[in-house]
Amino acid sequence: MRFPVLLLLLAALPACNSPQMSAPEPAAAGPAADTDFFVLLSFDDVRLPAPGRELDTATPAELAALEPDRTPYAVTPGVETADPHPTLFWNALTRQLASAAAQPPPLFARSYALVHVALYDALRVTQHGCRPSMPANAVAAGAALEVLSYLFPASAATLEQTARTQAELRHGPALAGWLVGRAVGRVAVAWGRTDGSDAVYTGTPPSGPGLWTGTNPVLPMCGTWRTWIVRSGSEIMPEPPYAFGSPEDLADVDAVYQASLQRTPEQIAIVHKWADQPPPVIWNGLLTPRILTAGLSELASARALAYLNVTMYDGFVTCWGCKYTFWIARPSQRIPGLVTVVPTPNFPTYTSGHSTISAAAAEVMCELFPGETAFFMAEASEAALSRFWGGIHFHHDDDQGLVVGEHIGAKAVARMRHDCLVAPLPRLARAGGGTIGD
Known about the structure:
Elements: H1 3-11, H2 60-64, H3 86-100, H4 105-126, H5 136-151, H6 156-167, H7 172-193, H8 247-261, H9 265-275, H10 279-294, H11 298-326, H12 331-334, H13 353-368, H14 373-389, H15 395-418
């Protein structure tokens, strides 16, 4: 367990009880254990256009738009893309749309995850060697269009125009990639429509000493949403919260109060660093420049973004499942007159979302960039401490969030190591001679 030690070093405050938790189980299998797709079943999933016959699914208008001197499967080496890194383009647009929609953090993470799952599966299936060469920008544009139009229907018309610009649909390979990308995007949308995110809470919040006393809590059904890496939102649970009025509980309450009386400017700045943007935005912001610096391929970039974002999404589902299992009161509900640095979120305290999501994200980032392990671990610990310094979480919330997030991240890393981006298959023979893509 790495994070509680880092918390102690950073805070120089007494640590909570050592967490008792079993080792993480092996990573749950994806839709197809031999391919590790997220939403597709295989490279020849029947929901996709048949290899070599992608243009059979094109509309007459799409075919008419092809440049007359381009045959359907003529491959132009070094096809120029509308954006040099389409996965990063769609990552940024997802952030803009989700921010404009003021999505709560779990929904923000869901948007990121659905978009990047579609991009990764689409690029993987089109770069496996069994299909004609297709430019990544066209594939990504088709996949992103379907998912983002589902997530943000009010922007569908603008998204269509943007996607077509990005896809550069002037020749056969681009149109073929666009069509496959859209097919994968529709599969991802079907997954999203059945993930339970539209479930409505019909229960009654519990009441009693030490329990949350707010109204209209944010996304109380989030813990029941379908997950990508863990089997469910209840698979990995923290130790129980401290009993109300116990010595441990009272010490936690007093620690928040004492910290509120002696915050430093540096601590306040750290609170805002982690509170002014949702955690998924912050961790995507740490990954995207490293993709460029490391010179990752488009497929490797899509893989990195997909794993980071499904892991954070699963972290939210797990954390929210915990919050609405225990319904523990926030510090401001326990400490009269408590001054917080940022507004207290409108949902129960145990465990901390920032801690859970950041610990999970850090595990993935350490796997991708092992030379920066110490940095990512420190960032996760700082995210946790920021919630304590801000007066909106107890130490126990943060410590146990880090523990659970680390376990979720470990499961994601186990799956990443299985998903090794196998070498492309030999190109398939086409009727009439030659191979697809020749």
